[in-house]
Amino acid sequence: MTGRRVIPLRWPAVVAVTVVGLVGLVAFTWPFFVTGDFARDHGNDAPWLFAVLLGLLAVVCLAEVTAGRLDAKTIAVLGVAAAAGGALRLLSAGTAGLEPMFFVVIVAGCVLGPGVGFVSGALAVTTGALLTGGVGPWLPFQMICAGGIGLGAGLLPARAGGRVERWVLAAYALVTGLAYGLLMNLWFWPFLGANAPTGMGFVPGAPLLDNLGHYGLFYLTTSLGWDLPRGLLNALLVLSAGPALLRVFRRAARRAAFGAPVVFAPPETPASLQDTRGRP
Amino acid sequence: MQHRARLQHPAAWWLWGLGLATAASRTTNPVLLLLVIGVCVVVVTERRDPATANPLPAFLVIGAVIVAFRVAMTALLGNGIAGQTVLVTLPRVPLPEWAASVRMGGPVTLESLLYAVYDALRLAAILACLGAANALASPRRLLRYLPATLYDVGTAVVVGLTFAPQLLTDARQVRAARTLRGRDGRGVREMARLTVPVLETAFERSLGLAASMESRGYGRVVRSTAATRRTATGLALAGLVGVLAGLYGLLDASAGGVLGLPVLVLGVLLAASSLVVGASRDRRSGHRRDGWAWTESMTVVAGAAPGAVLVVASVLGWDGVVPSQQAQLPEVPLLAVVAVLVAAAPAWFTPRPREMAS
Lengths: 280, 358
Prior knowledge:
The structure holds 2 protein chains of 2 kinds.
Chain A: H1 11-33, H2 36-42, H3 46-66, H4 72-91, H5 101-132, H6 138-155, H7 163-186, H8 189-192, H9 208-256, H10 271-277
Helix pairs in contact in A: 1-3, 3-5, 3-6, 4-5, 5-6, 5-9, 6-7, 7-9
Chain B: H1 10-25, H2 30-47, H3 56-77, E1 86-93, E2 104-109, H4 110-136, H5 151-180, H6 187-215, E3 222-223, H7 226-251, H8 260-277, E4 280-281, H9 294-316, H10 334-342, H11 346-349
Antiparallel strand pairs in B: 1-2, 3-4
């Protein structure tokens, strides 16, 4: 497939995305494997430190993926994905977290490749935050997560136009909807400290399995009620609108003619013109 | 003191908000936290950016919801604080064995409720500071200060910001047209039907914009050569690996935390420098440049003061910064109160934002 890679991911970009993904994973899961002393001493500042760190790394990663590789047409397509993300955020502002935004990101990543998926995921979240005035320490975490969702959609092994594609994408939307909530809760969960409900809080220095169990209970009781409807909504949207939306994106990609080689050739002058030129 | 009406530099307001948020994150004293929220409300009422909708009320509502939610959860599920003063005893719900560590119902103590309120109030105060920063200087004005390396990405965000409201207008029009044909326009399936015409229009418009951008020589203001880009890539990768190694050193006790922090800082510096090195921008004149006058500096100082005072207070462990959960008024450190009140000063000495011409 030639149309799938609009922003080609070269090796530096791949390395950058991988390292940022690793740092992101650490930023989310550090409560599970640090020592008790560290967690007690730094439990309050660590989320802020990671917010700043991830903000910088997300920006560096964006620069690395896009460096010198965005022409006006790619920007136009990314702008549409960002606008759709932002508009859906505006629409869903009243419905507490039922964000149908991911479904546009997933389709964009699937059609235009992992590079565009990553950038459009990160930009859709940013645009939504800028539009609703919701810029805060959670933004870097959301950028990394949404970027990862778009990136993963680009790497899905679904054949374009096949019947399976729709179901693969819908399942992906459901799984990522749940995983997004699972990860995003983690950035403030250690914050709760003793304030979490009994048996669901972060205990510094407790064995890994205990804390995992506590977090599992916390997720089941507080977050699943939001995440499950969100995952289902995104999956339903992909199922019902997915094929049409895929066609819209493919058509736009064809019209924009990404990757069309630009060749400059000396102007051909027809022989008849050359004859007439010499005359007075 | 009368100034010409103008908008302050957005970075000044954001630094002010971050300073105040730092102060709020360091204390659970309800008096101080309510003061912080009050300061935010006062400054926003006096000096908010009139060009955008005010996001502060939404942030305050979310904060109030968080407080209510935490109190309800604590009453129902309890928390890690065992208190003596039992207010009411709820009927206890028996749970299966795998959830034995959880309790549902049972005695509700005043101490646990107070702890929940104090802690939730801290989060609400931090949210209020961020909402105030969002209201005082719309974050999209910060987009101008992106480094040249991110010029393309910034343009994509600006395109997105411009098209998002138009997308909503389009969606409304398509929906109106469908309603005229006898559809009620509700439900997931109808929403899915909307997407095709709306996105088709958006792509149409956006590719038209791209064509006009290309024909006007878009992107020529950014100077970047293969060599500078390679340097930037090298710096970025070295920085990222440094950050990863530094984090490992910090978090893993067996590696010894001594080397962790310097390596982390070095990695951050390298990564940040890659943004600067990657490309440079032609010097050009800008429309309505934001100036930086003494009021901007004073705003930053006014925000940093409570942050600094409360960081010192929490490190030295002053009385009342982290109050006990007894049923009594917590002690209030006077210096901290004064420092938080200083943050309200920008409501008076900064220039007034220009009124909207409408």
